[in-house]
Structure formats: structure tokens, C-alpha cells
Amino acid sequence: MAAGSETTATSTSFCLLGIGMYPEVQAKLYDELMDTFGEDSDVTWKDLTRLKYMDRVIKECLRIFTPAPILSRRTTGDINIEGIDVPSNTNFILNYNYLHRNPKYWKDPLKFDPDRFLPEEVAKRHPYSYLLFSGGPRSCIGSKFAEMNIKTLLSVILRKFEIKTEYKSIEDIKLKINVVLRPTTGFMISVKPRK
Ligand code: HEM
């Protein structure tokens, strides 16, 4: 259950938090939604694939707030990582939130910039510098479904409500890990009907 529902709920909440913090991003998303669906029409799979800006915003929110940040692996043979010998049968803890905020891969990592996910920018980075759904043979089997789910939820919510948050900056948000990532002081999101 946690694999699919808790991760999706947490991801959507972090997206709303990011969107609430940047009114100019929210306005652009609203325009894209109006152009794509208008005010009332139902969300269809085909239309979801046209939400290019929303796709980038979601990726940027979940880079900064990676909902499933801690994973473990065990080596099945001796390996060498950047000059360090690691014997077989060693347990590893991987922290993807750290990876996603590492200045070695992300310039100005706490700057919110959805355009980091423009295709030409993605092409410049190592494919494993962004591991929202992990990588390799044990990566998330629900990734496409999760993306569609989050886009559908945001498409419904953002057309009807304006999102606000009391948080003023990413640096303000202290995080803890309860299996999934959480802000220590809650999401602090409020919604205002658009009309
Ligand atoms: C945004 C939402 C989601 C995120 C961030 C997420 C993230 C992840 C990550 C990072 C892993 C890798 C775990 C590892 O390597 O040890 C994983 C595995 C998995 N996820 Fe997701 N997930 C999400 C949604 C879903 C959904 C919607 C489903 C099911 C419909 C799902 C089912 C699974 C399953 C079954 C695995 C285990 C795959 C395996 O061990 O072979 N996830 N997920």
C-alpha cells in the first residue's frame, strides 16, 4: 500500500507546497491548464501528455522534496567506488534527497527552476543524477501511473483552487523521514476557491 498510495499522496502534497510558494509558477500552470482543458472539461490521458510545463514543475518539486529518499542495496560482488574498495555483501543506504540537492549535479540546488527539466538540460546531466523512482531493475514499477495520477490531481485542484502556503522559502522547510519524506512542521497549505 505504502509503495503506491503514500508516495503519491506525499508527492502531490509536496507539489502543492512548491506551487503555493511560487505564485508566478502557479499562474503559468493555470494558463496551461486553461489552454489544454478549459475550465470544466474532464481530464483525459491524451491531454495529460500535453502538459509540458506541469511535467517540469512536478519533477522540480520532487527533486527538491524527494518523497522516497532512503533506499538500501547490498553488493553482490567486490566493487571499487571512486578508489574505495567495497567487499561483497556490504549493505548500503542511499540518500536520493542528498543526491537531488548535490551541487555537483545541480547548480544552485535550492533554486526552484522547472526549466532544469527541459529536454536539452536533461541531456546534459548523468541519467542517474535524478532518481525519483530509483533506477535499474528494481526501480518503481508504478512510475508512469504515479505521474499520471499526480497530473490528474493537480489538473483538477489547480483549476478550482488557488494554493497558498505559509512557507516563504525552501530553506525554511525542515524535513524528516517517516518512511516517506515529511516537513517537520506539516505542509501548511491552504486553498482558496477561484470563484
Ligand atoms: C510518486 C510516487 C512514487 C514514488 C516517488 C515511488 C518511488 C519508488 C522508489 C524510489 C522505488 C525503488 C525502491 C528501491 O529501489 O528499493 C519504488 C519501488 C516500487 N514502487 Fe514506487 N513510487 C511511487 C509510486 C508507486 C505506485 C503508484 C506504485 C504502484 C501502483 C508503486 C509500486 C512500487 C513497487 C511495487 C516497487 C518495488 C519494485 C521492486 O522492488 O521491484 N510505486 N518506488
TrEMBL record:
Cellular location(s): Endoplasmic reticulum membrane; Microsome membrane
Query: Which residues does the record give as heme binding sites?
Result: C140
Q: Which residues form a coiled coil?
A: none
- Cite the entry's keywords alphabetically: Endoplasmic reticulum, Heme, Iron, Membrane, Metal-binding, Microsome, Monooxygenase, Oxidoreductase
Entry keyword annotation includes Heme: yes
The record's similarity note reads: Belongs to the cytochrome P450 family.
Protein name (record): Cytochrome P450
Per the UniProt record, the lineage of the source organism begins with: Eukaryota, Metazoa, Ecdysozoa, Arthropoda, Hexapoda
